[in-house]
Automatic annotation (TrEMBL):
Assigned keywords, A-Z: Heme, Iron, Metal-binding, Monooxygenase, Oxidoreductase
Name of the protein: Cytochrome P450
Native species: Lutimaribacter saemankumensis
Origin superkingdom: Bacteria
Family of the protein in this entry: Belongs to the cytochrome P450 family.
Amino acid sequence: MTAAHTAEDIIYDPSDPAVMADPFPVYARLREHDPVHWSPSLKSWIITRYTDVRDLLLSDDLSVKRLTQFYNALPPADAELLKDIIHYLNLWLAFRDPPDHTRVRRIMRHAFTAKAIEDMRPQIIEITDMLLDRLETKGKNDVDLIREYALQLPAFVIMDLLDVPRDMLDDFKEWSDDMAVFIGGARNSGDKYERAARGCQKMSSYFAQLIKERTENPKPGFLMDLINARDEGDKLSEDELIATCILVLFAGHETTTNLIGNATLLLLRHPDQLAKLKADPALIDSTIEEVLRFDGPTNALVRVAAQDHDLHGRQIREGERVFVMVNSANRDPRMFDDADRFDITRQQNRHLTFGQGIHLCLGAKLAREEGRIAVERLFARFPDLALDPSAPPEWLDAMVPRGTRRLPVLLRG
Ligand code: HEM
């Protein structure tokens, strides 16, 4: 598209396979010609410039509490089906505004200490090596790196953190996939409300039981810290605790899977950068930051306007839905030099992938640690790792997360 095109010409269709594979050209057009774009099909605003995305995430005019409006508009049968999941989601830190958000976040910070994350390091290494050993002993040459590595690694880390036995992986994956169809992962499926309700019911009963056991038989660790976390006499209610466990499980696994998957894909697609990293392993920190910026797991964040908000001459009305496109902001040439270049030595890298403001990701330190360990050890173990030329990566059909569903690779080149 040329500069002659107008705002009205631009159609942003996230379900178009070409856009799924590479959304960046349409983001560039939107940033240039229609930075506050109304999408009739999504019935939402699409915000694409860095400063607008950052400022909106910092603004009180937008709220994360978007579930109430949705819930109130549901037909009675669906509302009944979704009663429990909405109850728990409304207790998620990620869906609460101040003052509730402030109170719960202050309490949760007691469990998310730097030390708690630091203590996870040996476990992350152990899990990573166990998965790499498994890959090796299978002797396979072509594998789906998501299923056999990127998905399992963060799932086991979060399960260890929450004290869930590792043999529960398949159950947890199923319950969390069921909930994900509702929360913003994969797009519509016919029975998505039934699945979401079932996933939530299984997950919440599991955590209720686990919390009961831990309370009766205390055992040091993150879950115990969460149970014990007190702040000036305040603590999490039983339901808030269950909701928080579900949130941590959710927030901490798919995002990190996508970080590992996207990092591997980007490095394999940019052999010059991979060679640089191999020559200087100390570049791993800036590599992870560049992956987070260049094609990170946070494609978009969702908000609802709590009050009218004017931006670049467009009026966002109270109650309207707003997608702030983080991955577009991270490619804004107004903010980043040579923004479309994947450069693992980039120094100025103030990407927005962990959000901004009061909801800034609590698990960023853990995610970075997992990303570093996963990528370093994968390429050390399989130095000839290559993309499978006969099977291209399959991207998630989703608007909020960004990552591949399948990433076929050849382990030995
Ligand atoms: C690469 C991996 C990750 C990415 C890209 C990521 C990204 C984000 C983003 C963008 C937010 C803000 C959401 C919003 O403003 O609506 C967020 C919030 C959050 N993240 Fe992460 N996250 C990652 C990993 C993790 C991990 C490993 C954990 C926990 C173990 C975690 C826990 C949380 C929590 C609890 C919140 C809610 C904070 C709040 O609402 O105050 N995240 N994350």
